[in-house]
Each structure stands twice: as structure tokens, then as C-alpha cells.
């Protein structure tokens, strides 16, 4: 383990029910260097590992992010925070722009909220932990 981590370490994975987030949780849960993994997402994360704790977090809501951080704070410091969220496309509604003519303000705002604002709010509320 890195000298900057507690031993055993504690981590939070935001976006735990997505493919990448779930893979992070799964691998960390099997690693004996991690005593607690907080799996945060809009829906409950189900795990057979006793060191995984599922918590609800709406990435689009700052108050939800703040509440989740406060709940974790009561358990002690975190060693690692993983933000495994992001959007590039969603069905036909959200697609990467191929030209300037494809830019849609509403879609661009949604992509920026998920890919930029959400991670910044996580940093605001989780880094002090």
C-alpha cells in the first residue's frame, strides 16, 4: 500500500452501479488492503462482500452529494475517492457532436453537468474527508 493510505484503507466509488464503477468496487472488495468500500450511486449496489456499503447518491444534486459525504465522514477518513461517472452518449438523445451544426445547448449542459460539475462537487464535499 502507498504510504499515504491508512492500512487497511477506506474508499468511496461514485457511480458504483455503472460498468466501470462496479468493476472498481468488485476489485477493491477482494483486496485485503481495503477494509471499507462505499459504493455510491442513484440505485442500490448489491454485493456479496461484507466490506462493501451501498449508499444512495444523486450525482446531479449537490445536497445529495453533501449528505453522502456527511454520512461517510462519521465513519472516519477516506484514503481514495473514485469518480466513475460520465456521459458521451445515451441512445439517440445524447450523441457526440460531429460538427458545429450538431451542437445543442440542452444536451451540452447535461454533458457538462455530468462530466465536469458533478466531479467538482464531489471534490468539494469529499476531499475534506
Characterise this structure:
This protein has helices spanning 19-30, 62-73, 105-126; strands at residues 9-14, 34-41, 52-56, 80-83. Helix 2 (62-73) packs parallel to helix 3. The chain is elongated. By secondary structure, the protein is an alpha/beta fold. The chain has one domain: Rossmann fold. It has a four-stranded parallel sheet with strand order 3-2-1-4, with helices on both faces.
Count of separate structural domains: 1
Percentage beta strand? 15-25%
**Helicity, as a percent range:** 25-40%
Distance between the termini: 19 Å
CATH homologous superfamily - what is it? NAD(P)-binding Rossmann-like Domain
Q: What letter string, H or E per element, gives the SSE order?
A: EHEEHEH
**Major sheet summary line:** 4 strands, parallel
The CATH architecture can be named as 3-Layer(aba) Sandwich
Low-confidence runs: none
Estimated structural class: alpha/beta
Layout: helices, strands, pairs:
Layout: E1 9-14, H1 19-30, E2 34-41, E3 52-56, H2 62-73, E4 80-83, H3 105-126
Parallel strand pairs: 1-2, 1-4, 2-3
Helix pairs in contact: 2-3
What would you say about this model in short?
This protein has 129 residues and is an alpha/beta fold. It has helices spanning 19-30, 62-73, 105-126; strands at residues 9-14, 34-41, 52-56, 80-83. The protein has a single domain, classed as Rossmann fold, CATH 3.40.50.720.
Features:
129 residues, alpha/beta, Rossmann fold, four-stranded parallel beta sheet, 3 helices, 36% helix
Amino acid at each position: 500500500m502507498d504510504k499515504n493510505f491508512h492500512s487497511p484503507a477506506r474508499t468511496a466509488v461514485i457511480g458504483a452501479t455503472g460498468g466501470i464503477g462496479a468493476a472498481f468496487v468488485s476489485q477493491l472488495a477482494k483486496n485485503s488492503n481495503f477494509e471499507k468500500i462505499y459504493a455510491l450511486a442513484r440505485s442500490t449496489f448489491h454485493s456479496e462482500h461484507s466490506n462493501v456499503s451501498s449508499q444512495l447518491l444523486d450525482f446531479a444534486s449537490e445536497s445529495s452529494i453533501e449528505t453522502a459525504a456527511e454520512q461517510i465522514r462519521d465513519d472516519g477518513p477516506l484514503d481514495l475517492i473514485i469518480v466513475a461517472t460520465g456521459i458521451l452518449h445515451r441512445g439517440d438523445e445524447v450523441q457526440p457532436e460531429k460538427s458545429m451544426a450538431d451542437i445543442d445547448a440542452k444536451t451540452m449542459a447535461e454533458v457538462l453537468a455530468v462530466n465536469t460539475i458533478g466531479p467538482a462537487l464531489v471534490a468539494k464535499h469529499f476531499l475534506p474527508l
